[in-house]
From TrEMBL:
Cofactors, names only: FAD
Native organism taxonomy: Bacteria, Bacillati, Actinomycetota, Actinomycetes, Pseudonocardiales
Molecular function in Gene Ontology: oxidoreductase activity
Family statement drawn from the similarity comment of this UniProt entry: Belongs to the FAD-binding monooxygenase family.
Stated name of the protein: NAD(P)/FAD-dependent oxidoreductase
EC number: 1.14.13.-
Oxidoreductase recorded as keyword: yes
Oxidoreductase listed as a keyword: yes
Domain of life: Bacteria
Keywords, alphabetical: FAD, Flavoprotein, Monooxygenase, Oxidoreductase
InterPro entries, per database record: FAD-binding_MO (IPR051820), FAD/NAD-bd_sf (IPR036188), Flavin_mOase-like (IPR020946)
């Protein structure tokens, strides 16, 4: 009895993730390489990534959409700091306008990827997240666009006595549709972007919302509407107006970050002054809004139109800076001895970092150990052929870098097509080059996972740039070729040519 194997479908590029990065990658591929075959694999059943996954009250961007949006698609909404539904609408318009629907394959979770230098291709194992059904695809390139955190699990530290609390305990990443907090006392544990979003969003209907933090975070009010951008749009039209607003905000972001880096004491004083002015007279600013680190050692939290400060002024919300000793039946007991009563507890305690979707990579039979690799131009890994990834800025709008990475990736494909090349592998010329973490950032979610991540070097092209203007030169203007980027042809193809 004879059996035949199901042929493995081959694609030129597999994009992993149908969020803001993967949708952008699909559009750049479709525009720059219309003849190439590609698919965007999405483990979930919907596009939009973060903006479809998170459903907690008030979810919004903490970057302006003139820079968080794509360079090729103007943001037309008047609100520059936008809610998740508005961002999701924008992303799905991008899919529709660029005819990307046929390329997106839902319920396709990449579980393993193995590279063959002989055949110059990846063999990729795909599983259906619900049924477990598996199949394989092969690809010339993998473009990992799934971000850096786990979609199926948020980070919740151990809380002593958690089981004693009689009310609901909710992590924002898994927000239940039927959670009713109307007229209830809500305790939000955390002080990051999610917490400062939740507090004002819930304060309108809760009896009171308390934000409990171990250490304060830098929090700055920003206008929800960008007056300059809206005027530019009316005067010059959506395309030119968007370009003007984008350039203005890129410069503004860079100036703020540079000022905080060069003059941390002055930046700290300025932020404190702004906070004190927005809070009630006599408020203990130095207790609740005075972080122990310098501005931009961790990301600043933006609050549109100062909404967090407003609900504090109105008495609808309060901030407590202390540590949890134990959960109780009625709330939490603090180290200071005080007890915070609550009907609902929200653990806005962060993300679990998971590089490249947790997919194990194997190159010619050898498992890739990510901490042993070095990031090349912030988009490839040393020793790993034909594998690119999209990680945005931590000190600016995420998508600013994603666009440049996608452009560079498409230029790299053009170069390889022109010279008949199949394989592209970054290799450091100096193995003893000093190394440091790829994401050199003080946020807790990064520090918890820093030993699982690739490294970066101390010089270009192994140094991961945090500057949009430097990256414009490196990724858009400079050549895609480099002495530390090795190109070759597939062994099978070379043998046939002989």
């Amino acid at each position: 009895m004879s059996t035949t194997e199901t042929p493995v479908e081959h694609l030129d590029v597999l994009v992993v993730g149908a969020g803001i990065s993967g949708i952008g990658a699909g559009r750049y591929l479709k525009t720059s390489h219309p003849a190439k075959t590609f698919a965007i694999l999405e483990a979930r059943g919907a596009s939009g990534g973060t903006w479809d996954l998170f459903r907690y009250p008030g979810i919004r961007s903490d970057s302006d959409l003139h820079t968080f949006g794509y360079e090729f698609k103007p943001w037309r909404d008047e609100e520059s700091i936008a809610s998740a539904p508005r961002i999701l609408k924008y992303l799905r318009e991008t899919i529709s306008e660029n005819a990307l629907e046929p390329h997106i394959r839902f319920h396709h979770q990449v579980v393993a990827a193995e590279w063959s230098t002989e055949q110059a291709r990846w063999l990729v194992d795909i599983a259906h997240p619900e049924t477990g059904e598996r199949h394989r695809l092969s690809a010339g390139w993998i473009f990992s666009a799934g971000g850096y955190y786990r979609y199926d699990e948020g980070h919740t530290p151990h809380f002593e006595g958690r089981e004693r609390f009689t009310g609901p305990i909710v992590h924002p990443q898994h927000w239940p549709e039927d959670l009713d907090h109307s007229g209830k006392k809500v305790l939000v544990i955390g002080s990051g972007a999610t917490a400062v979003t939740l507090v004002p969003a819930m304060a309108g209907t809760a009896s009171h919302v308390t934000m409990l933090q171990r250490t304060p975070t830098y929090i700055m009010p920003v206008p929800k509407k960008d007056a300059v951008a809206n005027i530019a749009g009316r005067l010059f039209g959506p395309e030119r107006g968007y370009a003007i607003a984008r350039r203005k905000n890129i410069l503004q972001q860079r100036l703020i970050w540079s000022f905080c880096q060069r003059f941390p004491k002055a930046a700290r004083k300025l932020i404190r002054f702004i906070n004190a002015k927005a809070l009630p007279e006599g408020y203990p600013v130095d207790t609740h809004f005075n972080p122990p680190y310098d501005p931009w050692d961790q990301r600043l939290c933006a609050v549109p139109d100062g909404d967090l400060f407003r609900v504090i002024r109105q008495g609808q919300a309060s901030v407590v800076t202390d540590q949890i000793e134990t959960f109780t039946e009625r709330g939490v007991q603090l180290r200071s001895g005080a007890e915070l009563e609550a009907d609902v507890i929200i653990t806005a305690t962060g993300l679990n970092v998971q590089p490249f979707g947790g997919v194990p990579l194997v190159v010619d039979g050898e498992r890739v150990n990510l901490p042993d690799t070095i990031a090349y131009k912030g988009m490839m890994l040393s020793g790993v052929p034909n594998f690119a990834f999209a990680i945005g800025y931590t000190n600016s709008s995420w998508t600013l870098k994603i666009g440049l990475l996608c452009e560079h990736f498409c230029r790299l494909l053009s170069h390889m097509d022109h010279y008949g090349l199949d394989i592209c592998r970054p290799v450091p010329s100096d193995p003893a080059m000093p190394k440091r973490p790829f994401l050199d950032f003080g946020a807790g979610y990064i520090q918890r996972a820093v030993d699982q991540l690739p490294k970066q070097g101390d010089r270009m092209p192994w140094l991961t740039s945090l500057s949009y203007h430097s990256d414009v030169k490196l990724l858009r203007s400079d050549s895609v070729t480099d002495p530390e980027l090795r190109f070759s042809r597939a062994e099978v193809r070379a043998a046939v040519a002989r």
